[in-house]
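Quick sanity check, Dienelactone hydrolase:
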Amino acid sequence: MFAPTALAVLLLAPAAAAACCQGGLQIELTGWPGLGALHIARPDLPHAPPLVVILPDRLGRDRRADVYVERLNAEGMATLEFDPGDEDEAEPDPGRLAEALAAVVTESRLDARRMAFLGFGRGGRQALALAQGRPAAALYPGCPPSSAITAFPALILSPGLPCAAGAPGLAEHAYPGATHAWDYADGAWPESHQSLPAPEGGMRLPSRSDPQVTENAVGRVAAFLRAALRPVPAELRR
């Protein structure tokens, strides 16, 4: 549970934070002004696990991140999902984001040296821009310019053709025939067609759930983050 002395600004109300344990995970729900709700899942491990910060698409937090979160938690990574709510059209303020992450890392006993970002659609663009030298994986972020990518290393998974953004440390993988938000399953009909907001805004893109692409993407994201967040050798620790 977050300590009031450390996170007085974090708690929106006494009932805004709740923790429980589910299947070897400590689950925390709290909030941060200007960023919305924070959903934290920490594997029940004796050591400080790495943290993957998850930024949602324009629709806000939805169920599409669940399969990625489940896989990352199973591999010993903590996850922090933002649910901006009414703030979903605003870009995360870097200062507030840094404050929130510092507080979460301290209070949830996470490894601050091993932190990465994962984003969906617009959240993917934000992850690539906000990482500041940390690893980031972006799912269908469109084609952000290389000047907007601060992550290192970085992974972009896209429908259609690769973007070829050319940023240092960037790996890309394309899924020909897939659509934007291939992991967005609407209700009980996984093959349903719909349109969702484009990462860049201003238009909507066709979307069709594709379980096979989703399964492959989950594996690629997990492998990328597992390698990027491997433990720091003792001789390199400060």
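Posting the structure with no commentary besides this: The chain is about 20% helix and 25% strand.
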